[in-house]
Amino acid sequence: MAVEARQVYRTPVKPINFDTSQEKRSVQQVDFALGIEALERFVNKEPLRRIYESVFGILALESEEVDPRL
């Protein structure tokens, strides 16, 4: 039983540009920690107000920066 070797043609894939800046990494770590905190509060059946504190913290980190001149 012979196996045919076929070449698959596809468009070239652009390399992924991982931003490894220290500032970006620290924001990602805080984002992750807030997510874990929200999950722990949910599992421990804390009030929704406490869960939302962590969730809104995540949303604030992901929002666009506001120009202070406005």
Task: Describe the SSE topology.
Layout: H1 22-43, H2 48-62
Helix pairs in contact: 1-2
Report on the structure:
- The mean pLDDT is 80.
- This protein has 2 helices and no strands.
- It has a domain of 41 residues.
- 53% of the residues lie in helices and 0% in strands.
- By secondary structure, the protein is mainly alpha-helical.
Uncertain stretches: none
- Please report the number of helical segments: 2
Count of distinct strands: 0
The sequence of SSEs as H and E is HH
The amount of helix comes to 40-55%
Q: How many angstroms does the end-to-end distance come to?
A: 73 Å
Report on the biggest sheet. none
Identify the overall geometry: flat
| Chain-averaged pLDDT | 80
How large is the share of residues in beta strands?
under 5%
